[in-house]
Amino acid sequence: MASSSLGATTISNVMSYGAVGNGRADDSQAFLKAWKAACQGQATSATPVVYVPPKKTFLLSPLTFNGPCKSSRVYMLVSGNIVAPVKTGWSGNQKNVWIIFSNINGLVVKGKGVIDGQGSSWWPSRPCFNDPAN
Asked: Record's Pfam families (predicted)?
């Protein structure tokens, strides 16, 4: 258990669950394992935190973070970068969404990291009347 500005916390660092963080290896399973540890771990007064460390880039395939969680609040602290596969990396994948948080109360996602859905690789194949937001 650690102490932070969130109060007492239990940290599930994605690196401890096998994430590589090089932007090329798929880190999805490590994120799901860290999520499960935070969400389904022992219910205590400590706030569970899934920690995405800085100076790393984590490639995530489409995935779902499922609840309910044992804690009334769970944090995802994004200090590093999370990126989606480019459009060609989705071939054969039936999902039309990238990251889903399902059946979770009290979810807080914060941090100074970047969550990059690689939207620019999709824009040419989805013409629209308005320019996409940058």
From this structure: Glyco_hydro_28
